[in-house]
Specification:
By secondary structure, the chain is mostly helical. It has 2 domains: 1-152; 156-305, no CATH class. It has 9 helices and no strands. The chain has helices spanning 9-35, 60-84, 94-119, 124-147, 161-187, 210-238, 243-268, 273-297, 305-311. Helix 1 (9-35) runs antiparallel to helix 4 (124-147) and helix 6 (210-238) packs antiparallel against helix 7. The termini are far apart.
């Protein structure tokens, strides 16, 4: 392949961006499967039915579930392409190939975990793990897309070490908040099987009070995340970070505000399915923004060469 096909850095950046886009898209469709109660529209895996039929019978819920499975194939193709085409990029970069390898591995894991989720009747633990793996793959895809930019330089960062640490703190708290939201959904009314009349087990850590208990914890974490997002934006702006990072953090703050309002409204309306889907979609976009901000800010553990050069005192010019 390396001899027959050659991609420029710009062309490979487009490949990586498409892969990330499809990985985000399948989260949207997966959430649609859940909130429409279509999770068992195809009650078997890898075929749709136990008798070996691959395609679904006539019915909205079976089509929704089967459509999500078909999209998995598209996602798999884009992930494999991102890995294989990394060897066709000129100049070849080993770091891109290693990060790109995580995408097809993750998609394969998603396919297997999705099948187990169906086979175990949408048990909440499997559903939560399925979503969590999606978020991890988005981390890899975001890192790949950012590093694949033609202008990327080793050790680059969009701000100083302080900005990087605030941004990565936002990443860490965002991951915890996302997990808490996933647990709250796993205990809520949208089990994924209502459309086909299937009774699905719900998460019951606290018995009948589990939903309220998890929603309270998720709300507290989300509020803390919103405060941290504003603080990270202020620190980045104050310390002269690149305008692109400041603007990205500003968009994260706006998404957090929208999520907060939506979360309160959907709770008051007893979590209608449509609003839950929007909430999950916005949460996914928020996670993408946080991931990109983190990789853009640079490593929180060391000072990049560019920082050391920027801070080093300039020597006086030598007289000729």
């Amino acid at each position: 392949m390396r001899d027959r096909l050659v991609l420029t850095p710009k062309q490979y950046f487009l490949v990586a961006s498409v892969a990330m886009g499809t990985l985000v898209l399948i989260v949207f469709t997966g959430a649609a499967v859940r909130v429409t109660g279509s999770g068992l529209g195809c009650p078997d895996w890898p075929n749709c039915y136990e008798d070996g039929r691959l395609t679904p019978e006539l019915g909205t819920h079976s089509y929704i579930e089967f459509g999500n499975r078909l999209l998995t194939s598209v996602v798999g193709i884009s992930a494999i392409a991102a890995f294989l085409l990394s060897f066709a990029r000129r100049p070849f970069r080993r770091d891109l190939a290693l990060v790109a390898l995580l995408l097809p591995i993750g998609v394969l894991g998603q396919a297997v975990m999705g099948g187990l989720t169906v086979l175990y009747g949408l048990a909440p633990g499997w559903v939560m793990a399925h979503f969590a793996l999606s978020m991890l793959i988005i981390v890899a895809a975001g890192a790949l897309a950012w590093r694949a930019r033609p202008a990327w330089q080793p050790g680059e960062r969009a701000g100083d070490l302080v900005v990087a640490r605030w941004t990565w703190a936002l990443f860490a708290l965002g991951a915890v908040t996302l997990f808490a939201g996933t647990a709250a959904t796993a205990a809520g009314p949208h089990a994924g099987g209502s459309g086909t009349g299937d009774v699905v087990e719900r998460l019951g850590l606290k018995g009948a009070d589990t939903v309220g208990w998890l929603i309270d914890r998720h709300g507290a974490l989300a509020a803390a995340l919103g405060v941290l997002a504003v603080a990270a934006w202020w620190v980045a702006r104050r310390r002269g970070a690149d305008a692109a990072l400041v603007h990205r953090l500003a968009r994260v703050c706006l998404l957090m505000a929208a999520q907060g309002v939506l979360g309160l409204v959907q709770y008051q309306l007893e979590v209608p399915a449509e609003m839950v889907w929007v909430h999950v979609a916005l949460a996914t976009l928020l996670w993408v923004g946080i991931v990109l901000a983190a990789v853009q800010a640079g490593s929180p553990l060391r000072v990049a060469t560019a920082d050391r050069a920027r801070r080093a005192p300039r020597s006086a010019p030598v007289a000729p």
